[in-house]
Every structure is written in structure tokens, then in C-alpha cells.
Design brief:
The complex is a heterodimer of chains A (260) and B (766).
Chain A: H1 2-25, H2 28-36, E1 43-53, E2 59-71, E3 74-83, E4 91-96, E5 105-110, E6 115-121, H3 136-140, E7 146-156, E8 159-168, E9 177-183, E10 188-195, E11 201-213, E12 216-226, E13 231-242, H4 253-258
Antiparallel strand pairs in A: 1-2, 1-13, 2-3, 3-4, 4-5, 5-6, 7-8, 8-9, 9-10, 10-11, 11-12, 12-13
Chain B: H1 2-9, H2 14-35, H3 51-62, E1 67-74, H4 82-96, E2 106-107, E3 113-117, E4 121-126, H5 135-146, E5 162-169, H6 176-188, E6 194-198, H7 200-234, H8 237-260, H9 272-297, H10 303-330, H11 338-369, H12 378-381, H13 385-400, H14 402-420, H15 438-449, E7 454-462, H16 471-487, E8 491-495, H17 497-508, H18 522-535, H19 538-541, E9 551-558, H20 563-581, E10 585-590, H21 592-626, H22 629-635, H23 637-652, H24 664-690, H25 693-720, H26 728-759
Antiparallel strand pairs in B: 1-5, 1-6, 2-5, 3-4, 7-9, 7-10, 8-9
Helix pairs in contact in B: 2-8, 2-11, 7-8, 7-9, 7-25, 8-9, 8-11, 9-10, 9-11, 9-25, 10-11, 10-21, 10-24, 13-25, 13-26, 14-23, 16-20, 21-22, 21-24, 23-24, 23-26, 24-25, 24-26, 25-26
The chains are: A alpha+beta (260), B alpha+beta (766).
Chain lengths: 260, 766
């Protein structure tokens, strides 16, 4: 009896161990992929409040109304400036494509000029509206562009996190590597460190607030601190509504001109 | 007197005195070896709490204003060749990888962003990533550059044969190693393209490297010349040896004390050895000359008697003349500029040590080694021709033609004063170098192709948030820039937020030239700026304006770092001040060029102060010494005249005041007064002894004329060595100090003597 018990116990333990192994066998790529595909909402409407703080502690606040909608793995996004007053109704539209050979389409509408202009930039490392975020940092970078390895697991902010290091496959990318703390099961990237070409820590991104909206984990407060420039950007999302069935008509040049 | 009692004991403790002096000197020498450190950060030379510097430092932080190292790549066949463009790319990357330089701090055609407009849009692109290879690509690149006035003429020359890479660097990170590194890089990339490096950090680097070396090179020459002169004057190897030992030890003490108090060696301080060696030998000359007269007159006297007589007669003038010399230097303490302050303190300390060593080591040397073997020369028993010329010719003629002498002196003073009005101060770094030196030629080359290697930052500030989004203000800024570029030919270029807006406005109107202007609507400006932030590198923006648009930085590029150009630009800008002040905008200046300007002005104002202080102190000292205010005033006549003539000559010969030439008067006053002291001392003795004014006068000129002539010759010979310097300013210094010695000498023997003679001092009772 005792023997049988031991056998059962051992088997159970082995099974448990196997499961644990399974869990950790999740590759680095799979983890980052889960993060990339986490916010799989169809459309999103929100107000973005962006606070820029420079090294002298001076602040600038911008308020933007933004709408986005997924078309398969492509995405369309339109943004309207609400604040400050002198840029009110300036709008910005992006159509981004999963096809990596196709570069994003971008338009800007300046109300004082009364004209829509296509803007093109040859680099994805452009900073987003003078913030410390590049478009890549905002989650645009496809996991396939990097090689990912799990470094460790760690408790961060009372959450169990998998720590993944990602190195770019291309040469000459602006970061030599990034290290991401991903909350297990929620697949939220709660913390991310960015290292520059000479492998010194350049920026730290932290998710300050996140909440479950309609079954999706949405990060509602992010903070990016650029260590070298001593510059900080806070991004806060409010008035979030998900999957309200935004009209495709919203993502057109006509809407850019019309404003809110 | 205590001093006299102490001095009389010296012969009895000769060996001890010698050993103690040597031991202490060795100790200080070791301290110097261990602790001495050269200060190369030029910012450390400036008074940190002066409002102009405080503001400039702030502005440098706000706008990331830093000096740039300029690397120019020249291809005489045109830079649009795959080889040259590849070289620019490689150089850029290599420089970006230097530890002290940030990646974003390097600007070149490879890193520059090109904002281009078309009918339906705007693109921000690099000019090239992969080096263009075929003719079509090269031609396209050429067109892109020609169409972008933010690059054309700024990064690529109009001639299309030169392009530059600018690496901005923090002053405190700049080092000699970095300078060497740039030299190596330039060497490595040479051929077939020419590579030039320039810019203020490089000029400062060469300065910091060559300056001390130049002085080191001169020290052995000075020693050699002084040894030669000493042998000639003293006619004894022993005497020459001890006199030299005195000055060498005092130099060791000067640097040793500096190291002991952890004061770094500034570039001015490298002149201390040359100064101390040239000045310090005077005590020895006077003491040995007296000794020689004594032993020739009393061949039977023993060494102790001879030494005691020498000390008894000479301690007073030795202390007196050393004190006055030290006063000249110590007056530099009033300067706000630390290197000058320390130069003054430690040279004065060296002078005082030379005095102590003269009074201790020279007697000790005689006691230990015996009297020098002097032989009376036949001509010395009679009055030599030389003495006759001095005594009879000069003295008699001056008494005879007294009004002519006075008029001549007045004329010299008048011409000098006229010259002084022309004296100008130069803060230029480049003009410290030879006109045909490599560094000057490189600078000229780059200036001939680009806007200019020197910069002035004009910083506007307002209390109102968003003041510099106001089109009205920005249009004034733009007009100011254009007016300066048009009016002053040395202003090659300028740059401000207005240039960004003009570019954006043009680009958003499909590159139409008529829109190359600051837009008139405030909203449009705000929206362009937002657009720029979204598409360009906002850090570029923060170099021209601050976060809340309350501070604006206008950069003027000048083809000369000469103070005259800088002042001309400042004067022109002044005309525009009402335009700004009426809108509540304050205008200030920043940048290293401006700081140098303020710095040199400070040196000058400090200099005037210290000259006045030393004059007053010397008059008081003379008055106290001879217990007569008139003597104090008369005695300082020669140094006043020589100060006037040296400044006057600088004006007439267009020699600018600089941090070294500004020191001349302090040096000259301190040394020049010695002649008056020797003269008056002897005149007083003769007057009291012979009670005949004319005889006393002739005798005095006869007796002291020679001694002070020798003294002046030695100092002049010492300072003339500076003529070998690689730096024009050091040569000017050498020539001017020598000239000063000469005018002091002439002044003493002519006008001072005459005034003394006419004043009837010491003959009043008759």
C-alpha cells in the first residue's frame, strides 16, 4: 500500500513537474507574440493624455482623441488633437500593414493650412509626437524581427513575470537589445528596458496602470523614461470604449478635415 | 634692527643654512613632482559666479550649446563621388563610436535629415544610407542638397568640393587624448581626399599642448643666456653659480608651494620660471658687485669681513627692491580671474624666496668656497670711457638741456596717450597662433567654404509662455538674422527657429520659393512645430527654443573669433534691442566665444585695478623708505612713463591686449622701480656726503648708472628669450617687458634724475 502510494505520489509529482516544464517551455518568441497579439480588440476609441516632462521639470500636456480599427492584421488609426488650443483639430491618420515590405501610409491635416499632406518617413525609429516613444515602442514592432530568449522569471510589482530578452535580427537597429518583463497569464509587458548600440541602458518603459476592459487587458497608464536625455513621457488612456463597431468611414481624409 | 642682527649671523651658520635650504627645496621639489597638475579645462579659468558666465552656462544647458569639432572632407573633383560619400559615412560612424561623443551629437551629410515637399505630401529622409554608386543616384543626391538651404552651404559647401562633419562635445569631456584621437582619425582617412580638423576644441587642444611645451623649451635657453650674462657681469664662475642656484631654487619653491596648496598649473603660470630666472638674479648681481668693489678696495680683508660688509650695505636695497617687485605681482590678486591671481601670488612668493636665498645662500657660498678671485683690471683704476659717457655726457647734457628733456618727455607721454586710445583687447584663440600655422590655415580654409568656425549665441527670453510661437516676434528674428548676414561680411550664417519654420512652410507648399518665410498665423506655426516634432528629431528643435517657447537661441556663425568682429556684431544687435524690449523680450548672449570676450574684458579691468594698486603701494613704500612724499612721487615717475609708453606702443603697433600682454605693466612696475630705488638711495648718500648738488648728481649717475644698466641688461636678455616662442603673444610679451625695462632705465637716468635735481630735495637747508 505504502509502495503504491509512493508510486502515485511520484507519478503525480512527475506530472506536475512536466506541466511546469511545459509552461516554461513556452519560447521567448511565443511570449512576446502573446504580448503582441494581446489587445486583439476590433476597434478602440479613447482619449490619450500625453504629458512630456523635460529634465528641468517643465511639462507640456497634449490631449488627443484617437480611434483605431483592425482589418485582419492591418490597422487603421486616426487621431485628433484636442489640446493645446493652437493645434486643436490637427489630425493624423495611419494605415499600418502586417506586410513588412509595405510601409505605413500616413497623413496629416493642419487646419491652419487647410490641407492634407501625406507624410513619409524612412525610419520606424521616429519618435511619436516629440515623446520618448518610438512607433516601435508603442507596440508596432513585429515579434518576428527579433530573436527572443527567456532570461528568468521574477516577481515584479507583485506579479509573476517572465523576463525575455530580444535582440534585433537586422543590423544597425536603434536598440542593441530590449528586456521585457511580461506578466504571466495576462501577457502584459509591465516593464521594458531599452539598450542602445553600445549596450548601455537608454530607456525604461513601465506600465503604471492596466485594467480589464471587455475581456482585454488594456494598459491605461504608461511611463517612458529616457535616461540619457532625462526626459519622461506619461501616456494615459481614458474614456476607453472597445468594439463599438466604429465605422470605416471614420478613417478617411474627409474625416480628418472635418475634425471632431 | 632684528633683521640686521639675524643677517649678521648668516656667515657663522653658512653650512647649516645651505643644508637646510637644499633640504627644504628637495622636499618641495618632491611635492611638486607628485602633486603638480596642469589645468587644461578652459572653463575652469573663468570666474564661475560672474553673471555673464552664470547665464551663459545656463543657456548652454538649455539649448545644448557646445563647441563643435569640425572635420572637413575635401575632394577637389567634387564630393559627389562614391568614394568620398563612403568616406563621409565611415568617418561619421567612427566618430559616433567615440565614447565621449553621443551618437546624436554628430552631424554630417550622412546623418542630416532632409525634409522635402511635394504636391501631395512631405517626406523626411536621410540624404543617403547606402552610398550612391551610379551617376543617376549621385546626381539625385546633388539635387536634394542644392534644394535644401538647411544643408547647402552649411554641411556641403556651395562649391560642392567640401563637406563637413560636426561633432559636438561637452567641454569637461575634452582631453588631450581625444584631441590625439581626432588627429589619428584625420590621418587615417587622408587621401585622395584632404581631411582637415578645426573648431574651438581643436584650437584649445593645440594651445594646451603647445603652450606649456613652448615654455619648457625656453627655460634652458633662459638659463643659458643668464649664465652667460652673469659670467660677463660678475666675472666669476662661483658667483654665477650661486646666483643661478638662488633663482633655480626660488622657481622650485614657487611651483612646490603651488603643488603644496593643490593649485593647478594654469597656462599663465608656465611663464613663472622665465620670469623668476630673469628677475631673481638682480639681487645676486647687486650683492656681488658690491663685494667686488669692496675686495678690490680692501685686498687684505678676509671673507667674513667682506661678507659682513656686503650684507650690511646690501640687505636694505635687496629687501626693498624685492618687495617692490613682489608688490607688482601681488597686485594681480585683485584680478577676478583665478589663473592671474595665482600667477601673481606664486611669482611674488618666488621673488621673496629669491630674496631670502640671495641673503642666505650667497654669503653661505662665500663662507664655504671662499671669495671669488677678482683681479683689478687696469682701466678700472681710472674712470672708464663708459663711466665718463654716463656721468659727464648724459648727466651734464640733461642738466644743461633741462627744458628739452622735459618737452621730450611730455611728447613721449602725449604720443603714448594717443596710442592708448587705440589699444584693443583680443579674446581670439586663433590669433594666438602664427598666421601661417596649420591651425590658422585650416580655419581659414573652412571659413572660406562655410559660414564660419566661431559662433555667437543670442538668447532671447520672455516671461510669456509661447512667446516664440508669435509670428511677429519670429519675423523680427528672421529680419535680424538676414540683416546681420547682409551687413557684416564676417557673419557667414545664422540659424534659429525661424529657419525651421521657413523650411516647413516652403515644404508644405510644394517647395515653392515664395513660401520660404515665417508664416503669419500663430496657429500655423504651432501646427508646423507639431508636425516637425512628429516627423523630425525634436531634439534639434530644443537646440533653438525651450520647452515652453519662452526662450529662443539664435546662432550666428562668424568667420573670425577676433574680438573686433564679435564687438561689431554685438553693436549691430544692440540697434535691434528696442524691437525686442518693447515686446517684453530680454536679449542676452552665450557661448564660448562670448565668454572669452567677457573674460578678456575682465582681465583688462582687473589689470587697470592692479596697476593702480601697485602704483599706490610703491609710492607709499618709497615715501616710507625715504620719509618723503615727493621722493615717492618722483621715484615712481619712470615706471609711470614706461607703463604709458608700453600701452601706447601697443596701440600704435596694433598689438592687442591679451591675458599675457595685460600682465606687462604689473611686471614692469615691480621691476622698473628698482632702478629708482638704487638711484635715489645713492643720490641721498652722495647729497649728504658732498653737499653739492651738481657733484652729487654726476656722481650718482656715474655710480649707479652702470649697476642699473647691468641689471636692466640681464632682465632684458632674460625676457628677450621669449622672442623664440612659437606664440606671437609671448613674443610680444618678451619684447614689451624688455622695452619697459629700457624705458624705466632711460626714465630714471633722464627725467627722474632731472626732476630730482630741480626739486632740491636733500639740499633745502642750504
Amino acid at each position: 500500500m505504502k509502495f503504491l502510494f509512493k508510486i502515485i505520489l511520484l507519478t503525480g509529482l512527475a506530472g506536475g513537474f512536466y506541466l511546469v516544464c511545459q509552461e516554461s517551455r513556452l519560447s521567448g518568441l511565443e511570449i512576446i507574440d502573446k504580448v503582441y497579439n494581446r489587445a486583439a480588440e476590433n476597434d478602440l476609441k479613447s482619449t490619450l493624455t500625453m504629458t512630456l516632462i523635460n529634465s528641468a521639470g517643465q511639462q507640456r500636456v497634449r490631449k488627443i482623441m484617437q480611434f483605431s480599427k483592425r482589418y485582419g492584421s492591418d490597422e487603421k488609426k486616426i487621431m485628433f488633437f484636442v489640446m493645446p488650443a493652437d493645434v486643436r483639430n490637427t489630425s493624423f491618420m495611419t494605415w499600418s500593414y502586417a506586410d513588412q515590405t509595405k510601409s505605413d501610409d500616413q497623413w496629416i491635416y493642419l487646419p491652419a493650412l487647410g490641407r492634407i499632406k501625406r507624410i513619409a518617413s524612412d525610419s520606424k525609429s521616429d519618435y511619436f509626437m516629440g515623446s520618448d516613444f518610438t512607433f516601435d515602442d508603442l507596440g508596432d514592432r513585429h515579434p518576428g524581427k527579433d530573436t527572443h530568449t527567456i532570461v528568468k522569471t521574477e516577481i515584479y510589482n507583485n506579479e509573476e513575470c517572465l523576463v525575455v530578452e530580444s535582440r534585433p535580427k537586422e543590423t544597425g537597429y536603434m536598440y542593441s537589445r530590449t528586456v521585457t518583463w511580461v506578466i504571466k497569464d495576462k501577457w502584459i509587458d509591465i516593464k521594458k528596458e531599452f539598450y542602445d548600440e553600445s549596450d548601455s541602458l537608454l530607456k525604461i518603459l513601465t506600465a503604471e496602470e492596466y485594467s480589464l476592459v471587455k475581456n482585454y487587458w488594456i494598459i491605461t497608464g504608461r511611463k517612458m523614461h529616457n535616461i540619457r536625455k532625462k526626459h519622461t513621457t506619461l501616456m494615459k488612456l481614458s474614456e476607453i470604449s472597445i468594439d463599438t463597431g466604429l465605422d470605416s468611414e471614420l478613417f478617411t481624409e474627409r474625416m480628418m478635415k472635418r475634425g471632431m | 634692527m632684528i633683521i640686521e642682527k639675524m643677517i649678521k649671523k648668516i656667515p657663522d651658520y653658512a653650512k647649516q643654512a645651505l643644508v637646510i635650504s637644499i633640504l627644504l627645496s628637495v622636499f618641495l621639489f618632491l611635492v611638486m613632482k607628485k602633486n603638480s597638475r596642469m589645468e587644461t579645462d578652459l572653463d575652469k579659468y573663468m570666474p564661475q559666479n560672474h553673471p555673464a558666465f552664470v547665464f551663459s552656462s545656463q543657456a548652454e544647458e538649455w539649448f545644448q550649446i557646445r563647441d563643435g569639432i569640425i572635420i572637413a572632407v575635401e575632394n577637389k573633383e567634387g564630393i559627389y563621388s562614391p568614394h568620398t560619400l563612403q568616406k563621409v559615412k565611415d568617418l561619421t560612424i567612427e566618430i559616433q563610436n567615440i565614447k565621449e561623443i553621443g551618437k546624436d551629437d554628430v552631424t554630417s551629410l550622412y546623418t542630416a535629415e532632409n525634409i522635402i515637399g511635394s504636391d501631395d505630401g512631405m517626406t523626411v529622409k536621410s540624404f543617403y544610407n547606402q552610398t550612391p554608386q551610379d551617376a543617376g543616384e549621385l546626381d539625385n543626391l546633388k539635387k536634394l542638397v542644392r534644394n535644401n538651404e538647411m544643408v547647402n552651404g552649411r554641411i556641403v559647401s556651395q562649391s560642392e568640393t567640401v563637406t563637413i562633419i560636426i561633432a559636438k562635445i561637452n567641454n569637461d569631456l575634452y582631453s588631450e587624448q581625444l584631441y590625439e584621437k581626432f588627429q589619428q582619425i584625420a590621418e587615417k582617412y587622408k587621401g585622395p581626399e584632404n581631411i582637415y580638423i578645426a573648431g574651438r576644441p581643436i584650437v584649445e587642444g593645440v594651445m594646451a599642448k603647445l603652450g606649456p611645451r613652448d615654455m619648457q623649451k625656453m627655460v634652458p635657453v633662459v638659463i643659458l643666456i643668464i649664465v652667460f650674462t652673469l659670467l660677463l657681469v660678475l666675472r666669476s664662475v662661483r658667483a654665477a653659480f650661486f646666483t643661478l642656484l638662488v633663482v633655480l631654487l626660488s622657481t622650485v619653491w614657487s611651483y612646490g608651494l603651488m603643488a603644496l596648496f593643490s593649485i593647478p598649473v594654469y597656462s599663465v603660470s608656465t611663464m613663472i620660471p622665465v620670469m623668476l630666472i630673469a628677475i631673481g638674479v638682480a639681487d645676486g648681481i647687486h650683492m656681488y658687485t658690491h663685494l667686488r668693489h669692496f675686495t678690490l678696495a680692501h685686498p687684505e680683508a678676509g671673507k667674513k669681513d667682506a661678507v659682513l660688509d656686503m650684507l650690511k650695505n646690501m640687505w636694505k636695497p635687496v629687501i626693498m627692491t624685492s618687495l617692490t617687485t613682489a608688490i607688482g605681482f601681488i597686485s594681480l590678486v585683485s584680478s577676478e580671474v583665478y589663473p592671474i591671481k595665482y600667477f601673481g601670488i606664486f611669482t611674488a612668493a618666488g621673488v621673496m624666496m629669491a630674496m631670502i636665498f640671495s641673503l642666505v645662500l650667497i654669503p653661505a657660498g662665500i663662507m664655504i668656497l671662499g671669495l671669488p678671485h677678482w683681479k683689478a683690471r687696469p682701466e678700472e683704476s681710472k674712470t672708464s670711457l663708459f663711466d665718463r659717457i654716463l656721468g659727464n655726457f648724459i648727466a651734464e647734457k640733461i642738466i644743461k638741456y633741462k627744458y628739452a628733456t622735459i618737452i621730450a618727455t611730455a611728447a613721449v607721454i602725449a604720443v603714448s596717450i594717443a596710442g592708448i586710445s587705440k589699444v584693443w583687447i583680443n579674446s581670439s584663440f586663433l590669433e594666438k597662433f602664427e598666421k601661417d600655422s596649420e591651425i590658422v590655415l585650416t580655419d581659414r580654409f573652412i571659413n572660406s567654404h562655410f559660414g564660419g568656425t566661431s559662433t555667437l549665441n543670442v538668447v532671447l527670453s520672455s516671461e510669456t509662455e509661447g512667446a516664440f510661437k508669435n509670428p511677429e516676434v519670429l519675423k523680427i528674428v528672421d529680419s535680424l538674422q538676414q540683416a546681420m548676414e547682409k551687413k557684416l561680411d564676417f557673419v557667414g550664417n545664422s540659424f534659429s527657429l525661424a529657419d525651421y519654420l521657413k523650411r516647413m512652410n516652403k515644404v508644405m507648399h510644394a517647395d515653392a520659393e515664395e513660401y520660404n518665410s515665417v508664416p503669419a498665423q500663430a496657429d500655423l506655426i504651432a501646427q508646423y512645430l507639431l508636425l516637425y516634432e512628429m516627423s523630425g528629431d525634436p531634439d534639434n528643435l530644443w537646440q533653438t527654443v525651450d520647452y515652453n517657447y519662452q526662450k529662443l537661441n539664435i546662432v550666428f556663425q562668424l568667420k573670425s573669433d577676433n574680438s573686433k568682429s564679435m564687438h561689431a556684431l554685438l553693436d549691430e544687435i544692440k540697434i535691434w534691442l528696442p524691437e525686442f524690449s518693447s515686446r517684453g523680450i530680454e536679449v542676452k548672449y552665450a557661448g564660448s566665444g562670448y565668454k572669452s570676450l567677457v573674460f578678456v574684458d575682465l582681465i583688462l579691468s582687473g589689470q587697470i585695478m592692479s596697476v593702480l594698486i601697485s602704483l599706490v603701494m610703491i609710492i607709499l613704500l618709497l615715501t616710507a623708505m625715504f620719509r618723503n612724499l615727493y621722493i615717492g612721487l618722483i621715484g615712481s615717475l619712470p615706471i609711470m612713463i614706461s607703463s604709458l609708453t608700453s600701452f601706447g606702443l601697443m596701440g600704435l603697433l596694433d598689438i592687442p591686449l591679451e591675458n599675457t600682454t595685460a600682465l606687462i605693466s604689473s611686471i614692469a612696475i615691480g621691476i622698473g622701480i628698482d632702478y629708482s630705488i638704487h638711484f635715489i638711495e645713492r643720490y641721498k648718500n652722495n647729497a649728504l656726503e658732498f653737499k653739492d648738488k651738481k657733484l652729487a648728481s654726476l656722481l650718482t649717475v656715474n655710480q649707479t648708472g652702470k649697476a642699473i644698466l647691468f641689471n636692466a641688461l640681464v632682465v632684458i636678455a632674460g625676457f628677450m628669450v621669449l622672442l623664440l616662442s612659437a606664440f606671437p603673444r609671448n613674443r610680444n610679451l618678451g619684447a614689451l617687458v624688455s622695452l619697459n625695462m629700457f624705458t624705466s632705465l632711460i626714465g630714471t637716468l633722464t627725467i627722474m634724475f632731472l626732476v630730482m635735481y630741480m626739486s632740491n630735495i636733500y639740499f633745502k637747508k642750504k
